[in-house]
Amino acid sequence: MAYKGLREFIIDLESKNELNRIEVEVNPVLEITEITDRVSKSPGGGKALLFENTGSDFPVLINAMGSYERICMALGVNDLDEVASDIKQLMLSFSSPKESLRDRLSMLPLLNQLASWMPKVKKGRGKCQEVVLPKPDLSVFPILHCWPRDGGRFITLPLVHTKDPVTGIRNIGMYRMQIFDERTTGMHWHKHKVGARHYREYRKAGRKMPVAVALGGDPVYTYTATAPLPDNMDEYMLAGFLRKRKVELVKCLTQDLEVPSDADIVIEGYVDPGEELVSEGPFGDHTGYYSLADLYPVFHVTCISHRKDAVYPATIVGIPPQEDAYMAKATERIFITPLQLSVIPELLDMELPYAGVAHNLTIVKINKDYDGQALKVMNALWGAGQMMLNKVLVVVDNGVELRDYLSLVKHVLKSFSPGYDTYFSKGPLDVLDHAAANLGYGGKMGIDATLKTGAEEKPVKLKPNDDEEGLVVKLKEYSGIQEVNTTLLKEGLLIISLNKKDKAYLHILSGGIFKNDELDWVKVLFFVDEEVDVNDLAMVTWVSANNIDPLRDCIIIEGSPEKPGHLVIDGTRKRKGKDGFTRDWPNVIISRDNTITRIDELWPSLDLGAFIPSPSLKYKNLVKHGGAEVNDKS
Fold first, then answer.
1. How far apart are CA 371 and CA 513, in angstroms?
2. Whole-angstrom Cα distance, residue 443 to residue 356?
């Protein structure tokens, strides 16, 4: 269904028992984050939260799309695969031959339907302009200070509207906005984003860049702002398709842009490309680590308007899973069809595990027909839209269950030989990838875990040593080794926590371990820092996927026709000036002790059910000395 603003979505959430109202006063500085973090990491994502007493005139809605059920509600479906099915039917309708007049005429209803989804600018003011502040002042809103080492308060769900100065084509992106004062913010658009491209075009033209920021409205707008659409496709066309009703837009009051009439809040302004960039950040980001301060443009506010009943929407990101994980799940399901029909017809399914924070780890299932097909799929995906930012890509065959992770890992270990089936490349990476050799650019790794055919090398599998306890005792004799996970040792996976002396030692240690014939059958060895719980596979995956640049941190120890070889993954923290690393390393995101204690005491009055301890307690040992940036000199 199409919602006419956040209030209508809230009513629907409440009717389906998907919302908790919190009436007691909660501070937007750190406290809302701590409560939301506890709820969002509950099984299934917990419930949406409406904080009604925020010290301002505006309630805060958060975790609104933080479950499978609620992201489906936001998109108006019962199952995300319904959207993929609709897209498939639409694409096939247009791509099939139309040889007769009757065939062509049969397209008219579909064309009329498409026209009904196109955005339309209506005359007059919209609901979003019922109240116009006489003096723009961002401090009237309950803008969150999310995490203790953030650079300040951030608008976290902004729909940032810009237009290409040459073509006039609109773009809606989602770029966090740090509050500098009551009338200026940062504009954190990464270099790969369309907003950044528009900014460069305005700079070439020597013109100020109009920007309009909408908050709220139909929740489908928020999703489409995150969707990986082609550069020249209007996000509101996708929104119209999803909600099966066109988006009504109204002209801004001070800028030459249009925004949704039913938005809750609109912040109009401009970015001047002639101004110097300013320091923005740090910010506790979706990787679970802080993104460190960097230089970005300033957004100047010229007008603020809102609905009379406006709700302030927000989200938090951090150690997964959070609300963004479910929005990424929607993208995974929706955009698999365009990939299948346009680039990769053999693609059957795709999984973005929460621990892979969207861009670090992807598993795809294909229908394999010929030698080398998995490698073809890797190269195609690394060249397809936002998949260019993927770092580790695993390809498996039809018949493998992608969402049974234990079974999946066992299949991968059985179906590949590290020396033959591990492929390395390099290219664009997410700017938030803190382990990349260079900002936004580094190594990629593909693993071919398909069944091998024809000329492809068949995987070697040796009988494991049954004396696991004896092997662990021998491994702990090596200097620096702390704990060993043997859960999947018989399948060929070994996880070791290490007090790492330096990277050279890790290489020496790997070689020493595999000189032992008793471990010939082990295919993959993970090294993680001593603070990491080696028995928590989700934590090991999250930390390791964040902490590697595959070209630098993944080592292949070659085997032989009789031995599978070994893939060694250095998932430890890299130290600036050491470990072959030259960048600053960010800290893991957790709440402060006093915030945790405050919410512990407040919990009985929140009416949120059984007590949920702070997730930050689990990750406290991962935090190093320093601020948002690790201080390696201590």
1. 33
2. 16
Name residues whose C-beta falls within 8 Å of residue 550's C-beta, 6 or more positions apart in sequence: 391, 392, 424, 442, 443, 444, 445
For the annotated catalytic residues, the residue numbers are 285
| Fold equal for 1-95+107-325+595-622 and 326-448 | no
Query: Could you state, in order of their start, the residue ranges of all structural domains in the chain?
Result: 1-95+107-325+595-622, 326-448, 468-570
Phi and psi torsions of 81, nearest 5°: -70, -15
Contact 460, 418 (CB under 8 A): no
**Domain at 1-95+107-325+595-622: CATH code:** 2.30.110.10
| Closest alpha carbon to 313 in 214, 180, 186, 173 | 214
> pTM, whole model, 2 decimals?
0.93
Report the length, in residues, of the chain.
Answer: 634
Say if residue 562 is exposed, middle or buried (CB neighbours under 10 Å; 0-12, 13-18, 19+).
Answer: exposed
Tell me which H or E stretch contains 544: helix 537-547
**CATH number belonging to domain 468-570:** 3.40.1670.10
Exposure string over 567-606, b if 16+ CB within 10 A, otherwise e: bbbbbbbbbeeebebeeebbbbbbbeeebbebbeebbeeb
10/20 Cα distance (integer angstroms): 10
- Token pair, residue 165, equals 């100065």
Burial 278-306 (b: 16+ CB within 10 A, else e): eebbbbbbbbbbbbbbeebbbbbbbbbbb
CA dihedral in degrees (347, 352, 356, 359; nearest 10)?
60
Q: What is the pLDDT of residue 377?
A: 96
DSSP H helix total and E strand total for the chain:
20, 30
Give the torsion sign (CA, 602, 607, 610, 614).
negative
Per-residue pLDDT tens over the stretch 56-74: 999 999 999 999 999 999 9
Which residue type does 257 have? Answer: L
- CATH number for the domain formed by residue range(s) 326-448: 3.40.1670.10
The predicted-structure confidence for 148-168, as pLDDT tens digits, reads as follows 999 999 999 999 999 999 999
